[in-house]
Amino acid sequence: MTRINFLLTLLAVLFLASCSSADEKLRALIPDDAVGVVRINLPSVLNKAGIKSGEDNEIVVNIPADLKQTIDAANENLVDDVNIFGDVISNLPESGIDVKNNCYVFLSPGTYRTVALFHLDDEDKALEMVNKIAGGKMKEMSEIMFVSHLDYGYAIDDDVLLIGRYTIPVPDDKASAAAKKIFDKSSPSLLEKDEVAKAIDVKDCDVTAYIDAKGLPLIFDDSNLKPLMGELSPMNLLAGSGIKAMTATVNFNDSKKGDEKVEIVTDFICANNSIYGLIYDNIIAAADGGDCAEVLSAVPGDFDTYFAVKVNGAGILKLPGSSMLFDNLNTFPLTSGVNCKGIISSINGSLVFGMQQVGEHDYNLGISGQSSSPQMIVDEIVNIANQRGQAPDKNANGEYVYDDKYGYGDKAIAMSNRGGVVYIRYVNYVPTGGADNLPALAGVLNSSKMALYHQVKINDTPEGCLCWGLHNKTHGEGFYYTFDENENIVLSALKFLCWRDPSNIDDDEIGLADY
Fold first, then answer.
1. Which ranges in 280-371 belong to alpha helices (H)?
2. Which of these, 242, 311, 239, lies nearest to 277 by C-alpha position?
3. Which of 268, 339, 359, 441 has the greatest CB tally within 10 Å of its CB?
């Protein structure tokens, strides 16, 4: 009996070890110089999406028709680029990818700026999938199976598929050697660091992430959020502000009760006495937390993207060196004579920026802010415009208007104030409503110090809303929901991630054809 109990115990231990060995294999491949890592709980995500089902070892994968249509439409827009996330999802049923285990994505300062790692249960099927995507034959290079296609490298070794996006174009021998170095575990794993493992190993989460400050710009550069961030990404500013890292958890609520949403929780890890802490304490935390309806109503309500932050202008002038900076502005011809300090110090409350893409490199814009002296700000701008020979007209609403006679094409600049709010907009149409009609944005901004709202469109059709708010110096919460309450929330999020709008594809996307 003792011998039998021992054997049963041994079998149980081996079974548990076999269940975790695939995950441990991938974790060991993440180098310690990576600047971020994301863990995706594939079984949970695919189950909630209705893509994966089955009992015991029988796994059935079906790609829903609307997701497949989105991927196909996105691929039709691409000429010299690839929709790698969409391609993997589209080929998932015959990919050889082990959908019973996690997959990992890490960000790197090396040859590959982004690397995805999948455990395989069928290397031959994975090889066929890669050949299909890359349009070529994988071959043995650097002792692994490898192929390069445009700005991606694909490698297979020891039941692991690696897909990496190049930092800069490199020849195949160097790309395959870099992949081999990852497979060889030439450095300790990033997940050996306690703070990283603690962030990644949060239980009962669909997605977990730990992103070093240096990796924050990278994760947005490689996502569909890049167009709304622009070249002056807030992530680049955060990276140099004393924020050390960001952690995040993402969960898909699949309650089927009409309130499905993706719940996003973020936390910032900050250095002591950081620039970010100084700015937050003196500018954001000190701002008036009053109702934001009036300031939102002054920005057109049909834009795609809004960024709002609570600002105490007087706090800006207290920061080291800021007073000298604004004094120097009076020495420039464009701002000479403008009461810059008065304008800044009068801002106290919500400051809202809105934008809408209307062409490949063209946007409608709007900005509004709560001010103790809104008319003073308008007068200052009008006066400097008059000095430059650009006297405005006044429309029926009492707004000062600068139109195409000053070279603005089909757009017009309009500005005015209402109550305690000053606003300026630059649009090619007459707005009919304000952003106060966006309850998600208003709700988050009223309860937060900073808010981001982005309306997700797929093939120019509104799909859903991404909204996030910073509640205090280190903690933020957000959500994504669909406009169609009957749609599966996971499928909606996957469609967003797989979609590539042709107007959002950079002209300078790297490609090996240019190498």
1. 293-297, 313-318, 322-329, 340-346
2. 242
3. 441
DSSP string, 167-195: SS---HHHHHHHHHHHHTT-S-BGGGSHH
Grouping H, G, I as helix, E, B as strand and the rest as coil, residue 167 is coil
| Long-range contacts, 254-258 (Cβ 8 Å, 24+) | 254/48, 254/488, 254/489, 254/490, 258/485, 258/486
Task: Give strand pairing partners of 354.
Answer: 306, 366
Q: Tell me the two tokens of residue 199.
A: 């962030």
Question: Rounded to whole angstroms, how far apart are CA atoms 36 and 217?
Answer: 11
Residue type, 240: G
Token readout for 214 is 């240096």
The CA distance from 169 to 82, in Å, is 15
**Closest Cα to residue 102, out of 185, 184, 21?**
21
pLDDT given for residue 13 in this prediction? 40
CA distance 72 to 368: 40
| Contact partners, residue 243, CB within 8 Å, separation at least 6 | 213, 216, 268, 269, 270, 271, 274, 276
Q: Are the CB atoms for 292 and 437 separated by under 8 Å?
A: no
The mean of the pLDDT values for the chain is 83
8-state DSSP, 398: S
Question: How many other CB atoms are there within 10 angstroms of residue 439's CB atom?
Answer: 8
pLDDT tens-digit readout, 308-365: 999 999 999 888 878 787 777 777 776 777 788 889 999 999 999 999 988 777 899 9
Tell me the C-alpha to C-alpha distance, in Å, between residue 446 and each of 353, 356, 370, 408, 482.
16, 23, 14, 35, 22
Q: Is the dihedral of CA 172, 174, 179, 184 positive or negative?
A: positive
Distance CA(464)–CA(444), nearest Å, equals 16
Express each pLDDT in 166-186 by its tens digit: 989 999 999 999 999 999 998
Q: Say what the pTM is.
A: 0.85
Instruction: State residue 254 phi and psi, 5-degree precision.
Output: -115, 50
- What is the rounded average pLDDT of the residues 397-404? 87
Give the C-alpha separation, 284 to 267, whole Å.
17
How far is Cα 436 from Cα 439, in angstroms, rounded to an integer? 7
3-state helix, strand, coil in the chain (%, to 5): 35, 30, 35
Q: Vertex 227, ends 226 and 230: CA angle to 5°?
A: 85
Tokens of 240: 């140099």
Q: Is the pLDDT of residue 157 over 60?
A: yes
